[in-house]
Write a structure and sequence with these properties.
The chain has one domain: Rossmann fold. Helix content is 41%, strand content 13%. Strand 1, helix 1 and strand 2 form a beta-alpha-beta unit. Helix 1 runs parallel beside helix 2 and helix 3 runs parallel beside helix 5. It is globular and about 60 Å long.
């Protein structure tokens, strides 16, 4: 049997935000399988409980679950204090929480998603989750990592952190240009911002042994329409979308000593789409 201690996360406490989501579950599985003690957090506690059951079914280990509103400084601080009370210092933080509206799936929000109609309150909410939330969590758990002499922050970005949305993917016949569904401005801007935050954090606590990198997944298949899948796969050299579990290895790599000399980088895993 092949064993490699470089990827071993035994004895490491990890906290994952947005853990009730599709990839949040996969990140949790990845870290548990590498030996980490995982704290799954999310604003939707009901969905989080369901997701934790999925993780337990696959790994045989029941993760800790906690309510967390990443955009609320008091909520973040409360989680930090609760973990400290139980003697847990977070060694690994995965900033995964995001709001990701799926263009073309909900006609009721299509018009409001267009740039000319985009509401500033919606902007503030989404930036609050996807970017401010990452900053709040880093400022809450990063100092503990620095004080103990090391830790890892992993920001989950997107292939849309390196290029703009291709709105042709969402175009529908029979609609005027001003009626066409679009990927909202927030998602790509937030993910670009996460890369800037990654670089900032990579230098901020570097002398104390805290590394920060980003992982940018490409499109993950999750029951999208055949039309959308066909359009997207035409843009991907390997001609398919990712499976949800294909990022586990990258997460284990980026959170372990296997990537000990990697800092401030954005690892793009998109089947080659971004190189074209």
């Amino acid at each position: 049997m092949f064993t490699n201690t470089l990827f071993d996360l035994s004895g490491k406490d990890a906290l994952i935000t947005g853990a009730a989501g599709l990839l949040g579950v996969e990140h949790s599985i990845a870290l548990i399988q590498a030996g980490s003690d995982v704290v799954m957090t999310d604003i939707n506690l009901e969905e989080l409980e369901i997701s934790a059951q999925k993780v337990q079914k696959i790994t045989g280990i029941s993760p800790t679950i906690m309510f967390l509103n990443v955009s609320d400084e008091n909520s973040v601080s409360l989680v930090g204090r609760e973990l400290e009370h139980h003697g847990r210092v977070i060694d690994i933080l995965i900033n995964n929480a995001a709001i990701d509206h799926k263009a073309g799936l909900d006609s009721s929000i299509e018009e409001s998603s267009r740039l000319e109609n985009f509401d500033v309150n919606k902007w503030n909410i989404e930036v609050g989750v996807g970017l401010t939330g990452a900053i709040l969590c880093a400022s809450e758990f990063g100092p503990g990592m620095a004080a103990q002499g090391g830790g890892v922050i992993l920001n989950i970005a997107s292939d849309l952190s390196v290029f703009a949305p291709d709105q042709r993917l969402y175009k529908k016949d029979g609609l005027r240009p001003d009626q066409q569904p679009v990927k909202p401005v927030t998602y790509s801007v937030i993910k670009h911002g996460l890369i800037g935050l990654t670089k900032y954090l990579a230098t901020y606590w570097a002398e104390q042994g805290v590394r920060c990198n980003a992982l940018s997944p490409g499109g993950v298949y999750n029951g999208q329409s055949d039309e959308f899948v066909q359009k997207l796969t035409e843009l991907i050299p390997i001609k398919r979308m990712a499976s949800k579990d294909e990022y586990r290895g990258a997460v284990q790599f980026l959170c372990s000593d296997a990537s000990a000399y990697m800092n401030g980088q954005n690892i793009v895993m998109d089947g080659g789409r971004s190189i074209l």
